[in-house]
Structures are given as C-alpha cells and as structure tokens.
Design brief:
Helix 1 packs antiparallel against helix 2. This protein is globular. It has an 11-stranded mixed beta sheet, sandwiched between helices. The chain has a two-stranded antiparallel sheet with strand order 6-7. The protein has 14 helices and 13 strands. It is an alpha/beta fold.
Length: about 475
C-alpha cells in the first residue's frame, strides 16, 4: 500500500464516521477539503489504479452528502417516531457501509500492492538494456525469420557526482500479458503494476571497475516471460555478471517487439508436455540460447550501440532457467560447449539429456514436491492422475540419478521444503496471497546465495565458497547436499 493511498482511505473512513455520529457540518467540510487535497496529491504523485476505484466513487458520494444540508435547508419534517426510525436505519446502513468499505478498500490495495523489488546486495549498481534479434537461419510456422527479444542486466558505471538516478518502472506490459495467459484475466486488471519500481537503470554505461564480466544466460518457464525473475537478474548483475534473459517467442506468454507488434502464446496454459521424450520445444529453446551467444559474441566485438564492446568475457559463460527453462539449461549444456556450468530451477530433464547427461557442473534447485500438481490442476490438463504420477515418478528418478552419477561434473541439490513452483520467480512479490506462508525475501536470499556460490566458482573461477561444499539442513525451510566428483 502506498502512503497517500492509505491516508486517503483512512480519511474516508473517518468521513463516514462523521455521518454515523452526526459530527457538525464544519468537521465534515474540513474532512471533505482534506480528502480533496489528498486525492489530488495521490493522483499526481502515485497515479490512478482501479483498486482505489471505490474510494474515488466514495469521495464524490460523500461530497454530495456533505453539501446536501446547505442545498436542502427546508426539507420536510416527519413525525418524531418516523425520524427516530429513519435514524436507526441510517445508522445501521452507515455501520454496514463502513465495515464493507474498510475491508474492501484496504483489502484490494494490500492484496494487489504497488511494490518495489528488493534492493540488490552486491557492490555494483545495475544497468539494463533490451535487444531485438532476428535469426535468419531459422523460421517459425509461418516461415518467417525467428525473432527474439532479450533483456540484459549488467554492472553499471555510476559516478559519485550523479545526483538523480532514474530506476526503471516494473515491466507491467510483459507481466500483465503473462497473467492474462495464465489466468485468462484481462491484462488491464494488472496495469497498476507499472507503478512498481525496479533497481535497474536503463542503458547506463557498463562499469569500468573490471575489464570485462562473465555472462549468464537465463531461460524462462513455459508460458512465462523473460522478466519473470527480474529481482534475481538484478542481484546477479550487482555481483559482477552480465545476465541475459531470452524471450522464447511463441513459447513465452507474451512478447512485444520494438515496432509495437505483440505475440501471445496461442496454446492453453495447461498444455505443457508431460512427456520426457518430447524434446522438440527444448531443442528449439536451446538453439535460441546458442544464437543469443553468437549475437553476444558479435556485439562484444563491436556493439553498434557502443555499450557492450569488449565488456563481456565470452570465455566464462553459465546458464540457468526455471521450469521448462531449467530443462533448456540442461539441453544447452549438452548442445553448446561454450557454456561451462548450469542450474536447473525446478524443471524436468527431457531427452536426450535424460539418457545421456553431460560433462559440465550442474546444480538442481527444487521444491520438495518437485513439479507436483494437485488433482484440481490435473483436470485442466490432457492427462489422467495415473499418467501424471508415472511422469512424476520418472522425473524424480532422473533428477536423483543425474545428481548421483548421470552428470559427469560436480553436482549439487538445493531442495526447498517451503514454497512452491512459482516461489522461485517474482510472482510472490505481486501479492501476499502468493507468499502468505513463507518469507519470500528469505527464500530468494538463500536461493541467490547458492546460485552465486556456484557460478562464482564454476564460471568466474574463484575459490569455492564454503557454502558450496557444506551439506546443510535448515529445519522446515531447505536442505542442501553435494556430490563433488572432481576434487
């Protein structure tokens, strides 16, 4: 809840009480004026959002009621009994409305808050840049060149005498498009997300504190967005990584290109393939990642925008992804030898990775109920409970096998007891209803500790953080185990 939103709602509640307890007209008028001033300040500084709609309507209604005695001074007088009855009815009506208004108004702005992403903890400020790519060697179903949007976060150069730093607003278009795809709710419902704030500075110069920085690629989940882990990208960039997240066009929920074209995922949100042999989409995504690496190599040699020339160390590359993006990370390690290490965040392993494995170090970050879905969710899919159970048993068995021996490099497994599949993303920041049973900041902090420790060692080449080698059990929160094979 934003400051003036809360004050404005509180003033309206007091205003309602002024009618319930029949405060004199002077107090009502003063309250009316205060409410007007607060409304103007709120709209100017914070901006309109539909969650405050009841307050906006109530302002007009109470203004009329406040001024009514001055307009109708000669109203008809009824009998004493009828006047008493009317007062009782009015009193009950006021009480009911005050309770309803208080719960609904505070409820809406609390359940759907305007939020700020957590501040990155690293030594660098964070810059952000987006690029539009065209892969002419591949085509979509309409035989058009494959188009991709990528988002790049990086350590930024901020001078000491810089007075005004403008952080970018939360990317509401991509997020509202994603929410529309997942929940079939008009994206206008989530337009208020534009008031959220990130910690990224658009197109600012790359830091000069180091000659160049290692690169991390990120792949989003099925029907999601390249911006789904925005806070995590900022955290990693603040520790000296160039982090590149890719929209897998048509597989992403929503993609918007610079010319204004919008592409929505045309499949059903529950059409995910529960079949480890179905590798077509994963292979397509892996080719996206390799093409992006090719492009990064090109702009590192000579960036036409002058931003990244010589600033990326293309000899130090890692990859990670969430859900289907975790599957993509594993496939890319098999397909592209330029990538030295990878992390799978709560995703399954598909063929051919499921059978062959790969050589590079790998970390599994999983929820204890690894990709498990309820009976209620299964009814929206194209499989039965029995079919899903068979699939679930298989992906769990594969994760365990590859952690122990199927992957030749060092392997690690971080398992969270708390949270669920979407807790690994920024979804819980959108509403306390999505994080009511967990400290989302602590969850992300622990996840980022291990991700940084892993990439710092296997991508940056630093000495291993003791956190990486020490097995740990944090009661009712997470447990961590290691399988170091190459000491």
């Amino acid at each position: 809840m934003r400051l003036f939103e809360g004050i404005l709602i509180a003033v309206h509640i007091f205003w309602l009480f002024s009618f319930l307890f029949r405060f004199n007209a002077k107090i009502k008028i003063i309250t009316n004026v205060i409410a007007l001033i607060l409304l103007v300040i709120h709209l100017d500084l914070e901006g309109y959002r539909w969650q405050m709609g009841l307050t906006y309507m109530l302002f007009s209604l109470l203004t009329v009621f406040t001024m009514k005695p001055f307009i109708q001074r000669n109203a008809e007088k009824g009998t004493l009994e009828s006047v008493k009855n009317k007062r009782k009815v009015k009193k009950l009506s006021y009480i009911s409305f005050i309770v309803t208004y208080s719960f609904s108004s505070f409820g809406l702005v609390i359940v759907m808050p305007v939020f700020q992403l957590p501040k990155p903890t690293g030594p660098f400020e964070v810059g952000m840049n987006s690029r539009y790519l065209i892969d002419e060697s591949r085509h979509d179903l309409e035989q058009k060149d494959r188009e991709l949007m990528i988002q790049i976060w990086y350590p930024a150069e901020v001078k000491d005498d810089t007075k005004d730093i403008h952080y970018e607003s939360f990317p509401y278009e991509e997020w509202s498009g994603t929410m529309e795809f997942i929940f079939s709710v008009p994206r206008s419902v989530f337009e208020y997300l534009k008031y959220g704030q990130t910690n990224s500075i658009k197109d600012i110069a790359v830091s000069k504190q180091e000659v160049n920085f290692p690169v991390l690629l990120f792949s989003h989940g099925f029907g999601s967005t390249r911006l789904q882990n925005f806070s995590q990208m900022e955290e990693l960039a603040s520790y000296g990584y160039v982090v590149v997240s890719v929209d897998h066009t048509n597989d992403a929920a929503y993609t918007k290109f610079p010319d204004g074209r919008e592409i929505m995922n045309q499949t059903d949100a529950y059409s995910y393939s529960f079949n480890i042999e179905d590798e077509k989409d994963v292979k397509m995504r892996s080719k996206d990642m390799s093409y992006v690496l090719d492009h990064l190599t090109t702009i590192n040699d000579q960036d036409p925008h002058g931003l990244f020339t010589g600033k990326m160390d293309m000899g130090r590359i890692g990859i990670f992804g969430h859900s289907y993006g975790g599957s993509t990370a594993a496939q890319a390690l098999l397909d592209d030898s330029r990538i030295s290490a990878g992390i799978n965040i709560d995703g399954p392993l598909h063929e051919p990775v499921a059978s062959s494995g790969f050589e590079q170090p790998f970390m599994f970050i999983l929820d204890e109920d690894y990709l498990y879905i309820s009976d209620e969710e299964i009814q929206y899919t194209n499989i039965t409970r029995e079919e899903f159970q068979k699939y679930h048993d298989k992906i769990t068995e594969l994760a365990d096998f590859h952690y122990k021996e199927g992957i030749k490099g060092d392997t690690f497994m971080l398992t969270f007891i708390a949270g669920d599949h979407y807790t690994f993303t920024d979804f819980p920041f959108l509403s306390p209803l999505l994080s009511w049973n967990i400290d989302i900041n602590q969850f992300h902090q622990v996840m980022n500790w291990y991700i940084l420790a892993f990439f710092d060692h296997y991508v940056k080449g630093e000495e291993p953080n003791p956190l990486l080698k020490k097995e740990k059990m944090e009661d009712k929160f997470y447990y961590y185990k290691t399988n170091i094979k190459n000491d």
